[in-house]
Amino acid sequence: MRSDRGQTLPIYIWMTGILLFVAFAFFAFAQAASARNGAQSAADAAALAAAQESRDELVEGLGLAIGDGGDWLAWLDGAGLTSPGAARGAANMLAAENDSAVRDFAAAEVNGYPGYRVSVETNYTVGDSVIPGTESQHAKADATAVIKPRCEVEPSADPENAVEFDCDGGESIEIDPDDFELGDLPDASVLFSVHLAD
Questions:
Q1: What phi and psi values does residue 60 have, to the nearest 5 degrees?
Q2: Rg (Cα) of the chain, in Å, rounded?
Q3: What residues does each domain of the chain span?
């Protein structure tokens, strides 16, 4: 009996060691997944912030184009994205709020819709674990957000005359260039939606 117990003790110790290693390995994978999720959240937020900033600029440009008597109808298609600097700034700010930094930023187009692709890296590391190298490894993620027009205009519409157009949600808007003030424009979210690209 004593010799049986003596033989089983090393097996118990060996099995306990294996179980502990497996538990620590699962913990390491959980740490990595958490860091990856944090990086993805930061990338999503940064891309959306960049697109929202440009959406606001689009609406400002639309108002100026109407006031100048130009072909303002093109702005309703999102064709006026010319200043990505402010969008980059918005992306940097949102990434920083999520303890990350923008590593790459570029204009993008998805299914004909303009937007931005943002790559971020977390400021924090995965952390110490039984897997070598995780203590210095930062999580990375990419996201793309696009600006999609929500209103439709008849192809025969004349930008020099009053134009009525329909937007998602059943909202109807009329703009008369001869009787226009910036306050006549609806909120940017009525004219354009911002969402992450699939």
A1: -60, -45
A2: 27
A3: 2-196
